[in-house]
Structures are given as structure tokens and as C-alpha cells.
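To start, an entry.
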Amino acid sequence: MNFGFLIFPDAEELDFIGPWEMIAMWSKFAHGPEHRLIVAASPDKVVCAKGLSVNPHATFNTCPALDYLLVPGGQGTRTEVNNARLIDFVSDQAINCKAVLSVCTGAFILHRAGLLYGRRATTHWNSLQRLRDLGDVEVVEERIVRDGIIWTAAGVSAGIDLALAFIANEAGEKAAAIAQFSAEYYPAQVNYGDLHKSEQAPEYIKNHGH
């Protein structure tokens, strides 16, 4: 099986690195996908939103048929939704994928690729209304939303939870538990304030978020 992780300039790092880690744990310890590929438009390094430089394994031209595709979000999605080559790659791969997943504003790329019409979906809290405004998506304010083969997640760290839920669905809860244990991912129940409420978030987050 091939699991592809799409990247592009200004993609949010944790959107794909978090799921990459969980899928890698699934592969290593619980018989997950044999091949994991970082895919980009060209073989050149891709500089992500927080400055991380990533070297792709494959390009749109060399990428094999994927069983699973994950699309991250980040500021870069605002440009990439108008990148016809990238959108064609997503829509073409989706035809044969068993599942297509997005994290954060990666949902807008799925939408542009024609994958969210009439479906339930979610995205980063700061972009929920923007997704609603598209008019043909039922926006659900949940951390993870599945509608058929399409999985969407809320912002950034939600991608880790998305990956675990996806593994549990595909391979069973034991496989997900193994991946979770291997990554020692047991978030502490600590809340440092109420900034998770969008109306209370600082203006700089609202204005410069995902």
C-alpha cells in the first residue's frame, strides 16, 4: 500500500508531520502501509509555514498510484487552491484512493478538487465560516469528520488524532493503540485558558491564522 502526504510552500508542518509519525508507527509495528511518500510539485526542497525545509520523495509526475492521500493546511492553501496542477493531482489520485484525508485548511484543496461537494467536513476554527460560505459543504464543528472515503480534521494538532482514528478504522483499535503507545501520545488534560473559543482568540491569530 502507498500512503502519500502532499506538501507545498507554506504548508503547516504539524499538519503532515503529526500524521506521518502515526502512520509510520502503524507501518513499523502493526503492518501498516509499506510505502510512505512525501509528494510535491517538484523534487526541490519545500519550505513550510514555520521554516522547516522538506525534501520530497516523489513529484506529481513520478508519484505512483496512492491508496491513501493526506493533504495538509496552512497559509499555502490560499495559493494552492488556484494551482491547477496540484488540484489535478489530488483529483486524479482520489479516483483510486481508498481514503483521502485533510488537516486544517487542506479541506479547501479537497473542495477545489471536487471531493467535498455535498459532504460533511471540518477545518481549522478560524476558517469554519469560510468553508460554510462555499455553500455546498455541511460544516461540522468537530475535531474529526468522516464522510465516506473523505476524512477531514480541525487545525494542526488535530491531524494526529485524525491519523489514529483512521488507523483504528482501517486496521482495528489494536493497531491504533500500538501506534499511540509507540509515539507515547497521551495528551495531558491541561487547558491554559479559554483561547480555544474563537471569539476570544487574539486578533493576530484571527488575522494571520490558517
Q: What stands out?
A: The chain has a mean pLDDT of 94. The two ends are 31 Å apart (CA to CA). Residues 127 and 210 are 7 Å apart (CA to CA).
